[in-house]
Design a protein that fits this description.
mainly beta, globular, eight-stranded antiparallel beta barrel, about 10% helix, about 300 residues, 2 helices, single chain, about 50% strand, 19 strands, seven-stranded antiparallel sheet
């Protein structure tokens, strides 16, 4: 069985089997899923809040089960300050997911909005698409959640055929419980990527002994923008998605100018040093180091 992680635009395919269900019996309790957002784990559904190593080694996700069948998971994230307009974010997401999909494969299956018991406003779209370079159709339920002070994303992904069938009904029933955390709820573990969010500047000398200046902007929704200049002249602009695991940053490049057959697709760089405002990356297939400084 395959499941996949979409960090806004990033699509990663991996294998997952039901043995990972260390079956914590479903219970009625509150759980913080992002800074400032909590949900209730209902007794009527078989839910766990756990790490799934094939998805992320440190980030907890909400997992839906039917016995030992892993049916779906929901990943939550908090948007940066200022993102309060659901329509604007969703229209941008649709534009970007269209660009990241095989031509004509994107379909809007459903959309709607509702208010949670905790006074959050939720807007959602259910979509299907085929990621570029693949043949299998993917399905996802995407929520924009806001209390008009902060906003959050919830990406619900089926991992089985039965999970796809119950995805909308179960996830909406869960998210209808969205509310502000109470003081006695243990907060969610910070994601690997949180400490890397920001704008980073650096340079290195390439194989042709030319100085390359690089600017990375790593965003809270796990997308990035990159600009490269060689000897002070802009060379390329790229964007895509990223994630961090085991002191490595994995990049998936979705857009690039100039566009050619040799354009980047995927890269993994080792983080050899990190001190909060300074990060050293070792570039793939070389011993080249790039020292990046974070803008204050």
């Amino acid at each position: 069985m395959s499941n996949f992680k979409i960090c806004f635009l990033l699509v990663i395919i991996m294998v997952y089997s039901s043995h990972a269900h260390a079956h914590a019996h479903a219970y009625s309790d509150s759980q913080v899923v992002a800074d400032g957002l909590a949900i209730d784990l209902m007794e009527t559904l078989d839910l766990t809040f756990q790490v799934i190593p094939e998805y992320d080694e440190t980030e907890n996700v909400l997992a839906g089960w039917n016995g030992d069948e892993f049916q779906y998971f929901v990943a939550f994230s908090k948007l940066p300050a200022g993102w309060l307009n659901a329509e604007k974010w969703i229209s941008g997401f649709i534009r970007d997911i269209n660009a990241a999909s095989e031509t004509g494969s994107y379909n809007l299956l459903d959309k709607g909005n509702y208010k949670s018991n905790g006074k959050f406003d939720l807007n959602y779209i259910e979509i299907s698409f085929i990621p570029k370079g693949e043949q299998e159709t993917r399905k996802q339920l995407v929520h924009f959640i806001t209390d008009h002070k902060n906003s959050y994303l919830a990406f619900a992904t089926p991992t089985s055929d039965n999970g796809a069938n119950v995805l909308q009904s179960e996830v909406i029933s869960i998210l209808k419980t969205s509310h502000l955390p109470t003081s006695n709820i243990i907060p969610l573990v910070i994601k690997n990527e949180d400490k890397y969010i920001g704008i980073w500047n650096g340079q290195y000398v390439d194989k042709d002994d030319k100085v390359v200046q690089v600017i990375f902007e790593l965003k809270a929704d796990l997308t990035f923008a990159r600009k490269d200049s060689i000897e002070g002249k802009q060379d390329s602009v790229n964007s895509g998605g990223f994630f961090v695991s085991n002191n490595k940053i994995s990049w998936t490049y979705l857009y690039g100018k100039p566009t050619n057959q040799e354009s980047r697709t995927k890269e993994t760089n080792t983080i050899s040093s990190f001190s909060g405002d300074t990060m050293i990356l070792i570039l793939d297939n070389s011993n080249i180091e790039i020292v990046l400084k974070k803008e204050s």
